[in-house]
């Protein structure tokens, strides 16, 4: 990939990640390098899983892990909190 294309991709991806984090849709403890590493690794794992006949959707599992999780807090008496 040409350097200029990669730089533009990373710039745009960084902005997308920042907006998603500000909206509370993506965990705030991740940076763009973390997310790119996870997506690239998950895509490679998905390709290998497909080759061995697995029906697991490893990319979806990884992407779900990027989202801010809702949890039940004991102090909120069963209410979901972020």
Automatic annotation (TrEMBL):
Residues 4-68 form the Transcriptional regulator SbtR-like C-terminal domain. Pfam families: TetR_C_43. This is Transcriptional regulator SbtR-like C-terminal domain-containing protein. It comes from Nocardia panacis.
């Amino acid at each position: 990939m040409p350097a200029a294309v990669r730089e533009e991709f990373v710039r745009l991806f960084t902005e997308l990640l920042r907006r998603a984090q500000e909206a509370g849709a993506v965990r705030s403890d991740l940076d763009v390098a973390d997310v790119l590493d996870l997506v690239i690794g998950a895509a490679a794992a998905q390709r290998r899983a497909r080759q061995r006949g697995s029906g697991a959707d490893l990319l979806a599992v990884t992407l779900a892990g990027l989202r801010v999780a809702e949890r039940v807090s004991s102090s909120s008496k069963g209410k979901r909190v972020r």
